[in-house]
Design goal:
Blueprint: H1 7-30, E1 51-57, E2 79-83, E3 87-89, H2 91-109, H3 112-117, E4 125-129, H4 135-148, E5 153-155
GO molecular function, one term: transmembrane transporter activity
Organism: Erythrobacter aureus
GO biological process, one term: protein transport
């Protein structure tokens, strides 16, 4: 006989269903208003050597952020990468400046062997991407800084107000 007897399975499932139907309302009534703790964010103890990039796009009219008449980043806009959050750079300039910056840091530390002895000395790249910037813009920035030699790339997000 190859059929399985499902009667015991159904009996167990019905008993579990009844238990949960009784237990859930009791558990819900015992939980008072839940208070989620809100922690004050602390200032980051960032290394000065870390490279900060902002990735955005122009608006629909081709106007960049910071220029008069900027209406906000657009998914149809042109990619804009800001080196150390200040100077806009092209892909080639991003690679060149990132490479020169990393090379200067490595030479100041005493060469590749010296900097590899203390992983804390290895600079990182922190990218802040505009919510409307296409992923291809962010991916291009990641590619260029990794090609320049930065081993670690991270993202910075804007904190959300829990009380809003």
């Amino acid at each position: 006989m190859s059929d399985i007897n499902t009667t015991p399975l159904v009996d167990v499932m019905l008993v579990l269903l009844i238990i949960f139907l009784i237990a859930v309302p009791v558990a819900i009534q015992t939980i008072e208003k839940l208070e989620v703790p809100v922690f004050e964010s602390l200032e980051s103890k960032d290394k000065v050597e870390n490279l900060l990039l902002t990735v955005s796009t122009t608006d629909d009219n081709g106007v960049s952020a910071g220029e008069p008449g900027f209406q906000g980043a657009s998914r149809n806009g042109e990619c804009r990468v800001y080196f150390n959050n200040i100077a806009p750079v092209t892909s080639e300039e991003l690679y060149d400046q990132a490479f020169e910056r990393l090379d200067a840091i490595v030479q100041r530390a005493g060469g590749p062997e010296a900097i590899m002895e203390d992983p804390e000395k290895i600079p990182q790249v922190h990218i802040r991407g505009d919510v409307n910037a296409p992923w291809s813009c962010v991916a291009g920035a990641i590619y260029n800084v990794q090609a320049a030699g930065y081993p670690t790339v991270g993202f910075i997000s804007n904190p959300v107000d829990p009380n809003a």
